UniProtKB/TrEMBL annotation:
Pfam families: Glyco_tran_28_C. Keywords: Transferase. GO terms for biological process: carbohydrate metabolic process. This is Putative glycosyltransferase. It comes from the Bacteria. The keyword Transferase applies. The keyword Magnesium does not apply. Residues 228-358 form the Glycosyl transferase family 28 C-terminal domain. One of its GO terms (molecular function) is hexosyltransferase activity.
Length: 650
C-alpha cells in the first residue's frame, strides 16, 4: 500500500461547501447530492454558509453551519450577517476559518464547491483560501465545482476567463447538474474546449426524498401558486391574488416561503379572495403538485424538477430582477419545447395571469418524460470515479518521486531535454511558454515551421537565452493519402520534393534566426520516410527528432534525439492525458535509464505543443517539472551540447 492509499473498505470522505443567499434551492440540491452519496457509502459533510434552513433534509450527512450570510433582492455584492447588519471583515474571516477547520477535520477525498468559481464571487476570498489549503494537502483531494443547468451569464468576457483560469489552476472537473440535450451549458456560459473536456454531466438532481402522507386530498384540482423560499416571490403572489379573484369557480392555494416576513404573510392572507387558501410552504409540496390542476411558480431549478416529477401543467413566471437571467433561460427552453407557458414578470398583471390560467387548464398535461431526474445518484458515482482518478494520480506522483530518489541514491544524473512544436509567431501561448522556461531556467528547443514562421517570431526570440530553433518540416502540410496517418515527409512523396523542402526550410530559418538554428530535423507528426533519413546527413542535418525510443541498432548518423513523453491526449482531440498513466510513462522512461549504463540511452525528451495547451496541461507540466528540478538528479541539456559532443567524437 502506497503512502497515499486509503485502506480497503474505508469510505470516501466528501466535503460539500454551499452558500444559499436568497431561497434554499442551492442547499436543497446539494443536500440531495449529499444524501445520494451517503446512500452509496460515502461519509458526507455539508458546510452550509447561508441562513439556517431547518426544512432541508440532510439525512445521512454531517452538517456544519458556518456564520451565515444572506443578501437582499438582487444585490449579491452586499452580504448581511443578520437582517439589516452587513457582514463585516471579522464575520467573513470567521467563515473562512471555519471552512479551513472543517477541511482539516474531515480530511476529504473530494471537495465540492457549489457554484464557485462561476458565481458567488462576493465570497471569493473564503473560497480561494479553502482551495489553496486543499491544493497543499497531502494526499491531495479531488476538487470539483458543482453547477446547475443554467448559469447567470458572465457580465464581461474577463469574468468567464477568470473563472476558467481558476478552474484550470485548482479544479479537476465540473459537475454539470443538467442535460446538454435539453439545455447545454453553452446556452448560458461560454464553453471553450478546455472547459467542455472537464464537464461531468450528471443529469438533473431532483430532491425526490421528500415524503408525504399517502392518500391525502389537499391540492386536488387546485391552482397551486408557489414563489420559492424568499421574499423574491412576493410580486408573483400579489398577482396571483388578483388572478384568483377573476376565476372564483376554481380553488387556489398560495404557498409562501419561510423567508417571507410574518407581516407580509399576514397581508397576503388578509387580502386573499375567498377561493384562495394562503399557507406557508409545505413539505408535501410534490404531492400537492401531483394532485393539482395547474402550477404557477417561478422557474427555479428545484421547482422545475418538482413539476417534471408531478407531470404538472405549469405557468412559469421567471425571476428576472437585476441581472438575473438564469430562470428566464430555463423557462424559455421549456416553453419552446411545449412543456410550460411562460409569462414575463416585468409586465405581468392579474388579468394576464388569469387569462393564461384559463388557457392552460384546457390543455392536456405535458409529457415531461424527457427530463431525467436521477442526477443525485449519477453525481455520487461520478464523484467516486473522480476520487479514484485522483488517488491514482497521487500514487503515480509518489512513484515518480520514489524513482527520482532511487536515482539520486545511486548517484545517477538523469539527462532530459525539452522540445516544443509548431511555433510560427508571437502569441499569448508562446509568452506563457517562454515565461515557464525562464522560471525553470532550463533550455528549450522550439520546432519552428519554416514556411509559416514570421519575422515577428525572430524579433521576439532575439532577447531570449537558452532557446534554440529546430527545423519543423516545411509547411506542416499533410501529404498522406486519405485514410493513412498524417505525414509531410512520408514515403508517398517523391524524395526530390522532400529534399527541396528541407533545403528551403533550412535557408528560411537561417535567414530569420541565424545562429539560433540547430541542424536538427523534426518531421511533422513525427513521421519520416526511411530513405529520407539516410539522406539527411548529406543535407547538413546532424540530428533527427521524432517520438519514442530510438532503435538500438540504428545508424550512427544522423544522431537520433527523440522525445518520449507527451501530455496531450491527441486521440481524444486534445486536453490532458489521464494523469496516472502519463506519470507512470515517465517513471518507466526513468527506470529504463537506471537499468542501462550511463550515457547509453538518449536523453529523456519532453514534448509539448504550446498552441494547443490548456490550463490543466500547463498545471500538470508544472507539477512534473517542479519535481524533476527539485530531485537533485535531473539535468536539462540543449541539443546544442549533444551535437557538439558528437562532433568531438568524430
Amino acid at each position: 500500500m502506497s503512502a497515499t492509499d486509503t485502506p480497503a473498505g474505508t469510505p470516501s470522505r466528501v466535503l460539500i461547501v454551499v452558500t444559499h443567499l436568497l431561497g434554499v434551492g442551492h442547499l436543497a440540491r446539494m443536500a440531495a447530492v449529499g444524501r445520494a452519496m451517503a446512500a452509496a457509502g460515502m461519509e458526507v459533510t455539508i458546510a452550509s454558509g447561508g441562513r439556517v434552513a431547518a426544512t432541508v433534509d440532510t439525512t445521512g450527512c454531517h452538517r456544519i453551519q458556518l456564520p451565515p450570510v444572506h443578501c437582499v433582492g438582487t444585490d449579491f455584492r452586499t452580504l448581511y450577517a443578520a437582517p439589516g447588519l452587513v457582514a463585516n471583515a471579522a464575520h467573513l474571516a470567521a467563515r473562512r476559518d471555519a471552512l479551513i477547520e472543517a477541511f482539516d477535520t474531515v480530511r476529504p477525498d473530494a471537495l465540492l464547491t457549489e457554484l464557485y468559481p462561476f458565481g458567488r464571487r462576493s465570497l471569493a476570498a473564503e473560497f480561494d483560501a479553502l482551495l489553496a489549503h486543499a491544493r497543499a494537502a497531502t494526499p491531495r483531494p479531488v476538487i470539483l465545482a458543482s453547477i446547475r443547468d443554467v448559469l447567470n451569464p458572465p457580465s464581461t468576457p474577463e469574468k468567464a476567463e477568470g473563472a476558467l483560469a481558476t478552474l484550470a489552476t485548482v479544479y479537476d472537473g465540473v459537475l454539470f447538474h443538467g442535460a446538454a440535450a435539453l439545455v447545454p451549458l453553452s446556452a448560458s456560459w461560454p464553453v471553450p474546449p478546455a472547459l467542455e473536456r472537464r464537464l461531468i454531466e450528471t443529469g438533473y438532481v431532483h430532491d425526490g426524498a421528500r415524503t408525504f402522507e399517502e392518500g391525502g386530498s389537499d391540492g386536488t384540482d387546485e391552482v397551486i401558486v408557489s414563489g420559492g423560499g424568499s421574499a423574491a416571490g412576493l410580486p408573483l403572489a400579489r398577482h396571483a391574488l388578483a388572478a384568483a379573484g377573476l376565476i372564483p369557480e376554481r380553488q387556489w392555494r398560495l404557498l409562501v416561503g419561510s423567508g417571507v416576513p410574518a407581516e407580509a404573510f399576514a397581508t397576503l392572507e388578509a387580502e386573499a379572495p375567498a377561493n384562495m387558501r394562503v399557507e406557508r410552504t409545505r413539505p408535501d409540496f410534490p404531492a400537492l403538485l401531483a394532485r393539482a390542476a395547474l402550477s404557477i411558480s417561478q422557474a427555479g431549478y428545484n421547482t422545475v424538477l418538482d413539476l417534471a416529477a408531478a407531470k404538472a401543467r405549469a405557468i412559469l413566471v421567471p425571476f428576472a430582477e437585476g441581472a438575473e437571467r438564469e430562470q428566464t433561460q430555463r423557462a424559455g427552453e421549456l416553453a419552446r419545447r411545449g412543456l410550460v407557458r411562460m409569462l414575463a414578470a416585468a409586465t405581468l398583471t392579474g388579468a394576464e395571469l388569469a387569462a393564461a390560467v384559463r388557457v392552460a387548464l384546457g390543455e392536456p398535461r405535458p409529457d415531461w418524460s424527457g427530463i431525467g431526474r436521477d442526477g443525485a445518484a449519477r453525481t455520487a458515482a461520478g464523484v467516486e470515479a473522480a476520487i479514484a482518478r485522483r488517488r491514482a494520480a497521487n500514487d503515480a506522483f509518489a512513484r515518480l518521486e520514489a524513482t527520482l530518489a532511487r536515482a539520486r541514491t545511486a548517484g545517477r544524473t538523469l539527462a532530459f531535454w525539452w522540445r516544443d512544436d509548431d511555433a510560427v509567431a508571437p502569441t499569448p501561448a508562446l509568452e506563457a511558454l517562454l515565461a515557464a522556461r525562464a522560471r525553470w531556467a532550463v533550455p528549450l528547443s522550439l520546432a519552428v515551421i519554416p514556411a509559416r514562421a514570421t519575422p515577428a517570431l525572430a524579433e521576439r526570440l532575439a532577447g531570449e537565452t537558452q532557446v534554440d530553433v529546430l527545423l519543423h518540416g516545411w509547411a506542416h502540410a499533410n501529404h498522406a493519402p486519405a485514410g493513412e496517418k498524417k505525414a509531410e515527409f512520408g514515403a508517398h512523396r517523391p524524395l526530390a520534393s522532400m529534399i527541396a523542402d528541407i533545403e528551403a526550410g533550412r535557408a528560411r530559418l537561417d535567414t530569420l534566426f541565424g545562429t539560433r538554428v540547430l541542424p536538427v530535423f523534426v518531421p511533422p507528426w513525427n513521421r519520416i520516410a526511411p530513405e529520407l533519413v539516410e539522406r539527411l546527413p548529406a543535407l547538413g542535418i546532424a540530428a533527427l527528432s521524432t517520438y519514442k525510443r530510438r532503435p538500438p541498432d540504428g545508424p550512427a548518423a544522423p544522431l537520433r534525439l527523440n522525445t518520449h513523453w507527451d501530455p496531450i491526449d491527441w486521440r481524444a482531440g486534445g486536453g490532458l492525458v489521464e494523469e496516472a498513466g502519463l506519470l507512470d510513462g515517465l517513471v518507466r522512461r526513468i527506470e529504463e535509464e537506471l537499468a542501462s549504463p550511463p550515457d547509453v540511452l538518449e536523453p529523456i525528451g519532453l514534448l509539448t505543443h504550446h498552441l494547443v495547451h490548456d490550463g490543466w496541461i500547463d498545471r500538470l507540466l508544472g507539477e512534473v517539472m517542479d519535481r524533476l528540478l527539485a530531485s537533485g538528479t535531473v539535468r536539462f541539456i540543449s541539443p546544442r551540447v549533444l551535437l557538439a559532443a558528437q562532433a568531438e567524437r568524430r
